[in-house]
Specification:
The complex is a heterodimer of chains A (about 375) and B (about 80).
Chain A lengths: L9 H14 L4 E7 H9 L2 H4 L4 E8 L1 H4 L2 H11 L4 E5 L1 H5 L7 H6 L3 E4 L3 H10 L4 E8 L4 H13 L5 E8 L1 H10 L7 E5 H7 L4 H8 L2 E5 L3 H17 L3 E4 L11 H10 E8 L3 E10 L8 H5 L14 H5 L31 H8 L8
Chain B lengths: L4 E9 L7 E6 L2 E6 L11 E5 L2 E5 L2 H13 L7
Antiparallel strand pairs in B: 1-2, 1-4, 2-3, 4-5
Classes of the chains: A alpha/beta (about 375), B alpha+beta (about 80).
Chain lengths: ~375, ~80
């Protein structure tokens, strides 16, 4: 068992698709929350395998995509300061701000570095005592514990030249915001499996009850996604709702209690602006108590002009599932991964990038 | 960003109780991963790793049960 190939087995995929076909009696719209799931759905062509009654729409679970332009502009401003080393995950470096991106700042001589893990940034800070080292932290509940661990270590190691520009967001408030929207046409959700590996499944029970919506905790391989869809369809066809864990090999009901404890210690909930959705109360984290000394905004107070967006980019509608990438007049024409107009074309988890990479036949000729 | 990758623990270093680490094999690559949040973990176990940290242990028995159920294609309504 390697826990990868077994879940890409063509025969099992086809069997499960048949099982779903037999179950579906009418049209259902299911949203996968996580961009990683969107990527798998496109890569393995799952939408074409599913019965026509099942519509998959793609949710806001791409942290790079939902980071507001204003925050990217602030990161760019920090990276332009002469004594700053700005670090982040690879995708963040390519996301367009109002007028440039972090990679362009690097090309002009800024010290911008890509890291695999936030923990690596501690070594950068220790190796560069004369510099201010900032980590641009994006991510959902999956990523926040690693950042919390990094900040806690920074406190322990008394690192005075380390700080974090925080853009952490939380899934449950976003699901509620989507369901509260007048435009909502979502019948069921595939919840993000690795978020639940950290947080457990209990947060989703009140949402399923309040909105009478099925939620299936779902993994990322083709079989995982089909198992999530099957669980969702089963509830929909029965007229029931609730939370089903369809990713039990990695997700425990209680999640990861030690990681949750660390999140409670280091962070506290705060309102966050989501690109395409707007500001949602208590939908993100900021540093709390003694850890707030590591907040890069408090330390540097970057001032940036109001953010400007490319007028033709429909990222907001993409991120809320109201439009699909191929509905956009710029898709594949003036917007492509090497020259993105908006974040969903940048991130490997962005819906536009996934469509561009795996569904090129749909691109209209120029 | 929320992708986590399954990897197998090949050695454990718990000399620092606040930062327990493991060498983890991902196909041909080996990386140092924090296993601080997983109390019951042993060499040979598979974990789901994300940005340098292990989020959960992969439940081998559960995985086998699910795959067997799919292969037999009996009633998998309990999934």
């Amino acid at each position: 068992m390697k826990y990868i190939d077994e879940y890409r087995d063509k025969d099992l995929v086809n069997k499960l698709v048949q099982k779903i076909r037999k179950k579906v009696s009418r049209e259902w719209t299911i949203m996968e929350i996580c961009g990683g799931q969107t990527h798998s759905i496109m890569k393995y062509n799952l939408m074409q395998l599913l019965p026509s009654g099942i519509s998959l729409i793609h949710g806001p679970g791409c942290p790079v995509c939902v980071t507001p332009v204003n925050l990217i502009d602030q990161a760019i401003a920090l990276a332009g300061l002469p004594n700053v080393i700005l670090t982040s995950f690879g995708d963040m470096l390519r996301v367009p701000g109002s007028s440039t991106n972090l990679l362009s700042v690097k090309a002009l001589g800024g010290d911008v570095r890509m890291v695999y893990s936030p923990l690596d940034v501690l070594d950068v800070a220790e190796a560069n005592p004369g510099k201010e080292v900032v980590f641009f932290a994006v991510g959902f509940e999956t990523t926040a514990p690693a950042v919390a661990m990094t900040v806690k270590q920074a406190l322990k190691r008394k690192l005075k030249n380390f700080s974090v520009l925080i853009s952490h967001v939380l899934v449950p408030p976003a699901i509620e915001a989507l369901l509260d929207s007048d435009e909502s046409r979502i019948d069921g959700f595939l919840a993000a499996g690795h978020v639940c590996a950290v947080m457990g499944t209990h947060e989703y029970i009140p949402i399923a009850e309040k909105y009478r919506v099925p939620i299936a905790v779902t993994g990322f391989e083709p079989l995982d996604i089909l198992m999530g869809i099957f669980a969702c369809v089963k509830m929909l066809e029965q007229g029931s709702h609730g939370v089903v864990n369809a990713y039990t090999r990695s997700v425990r009901e209680e999640g990861n209690p030690a990681a949750q404890q660390l999140l409670r210690e280091v962070f506290e909930p705060t309102p966050r602006e989501w690109r395409g959705i707007g500001t949602i109360p208590a939908s993100g984290f900021h540093l709390s108590g003694e850890y707030s000394e590591f907040d890069a905004l408090n330390r540097f107070h970057p001032v940036v002009p109001p953010a400007s967006h490319p007028g033709s980019c429909i990222a907001g509608k993409i991120l809320t599932g109201q439009k699909k990438p191929e509905d956009c007049s710029e898709f594949g024409i003036r917007c492509y991964p090497e020259k993105p107009l908006g974040a969903p074309m940048v991130s490997t988890e962005g819906a536009c990038a996934a469509y561009f990479r795996y569904k090129r036949t749909a691109v209209r000729p120029i | 960003m929320c992708l986590a990758v399954p990897g197998q623990i090949i050695s454990i270093d718990d000399s620092n109780p606040e930062m327990k680490m493991a060498e983890v094999r991902f196909g041909a690559a080996i990386r140092d991963i924090s296993i601080q949040w997983l109390p019951d973990i042993a060499v040979g176990d598979y974990i789901m790793a994300h940005v340098g940290t292990a989020l959960s242990k992969v439940d081998e028995e559960d995985a086998r049960f699910t795959l067997d159920a799919l292969r037999e294609m009996g009633e998998i309504d309990d999934l």
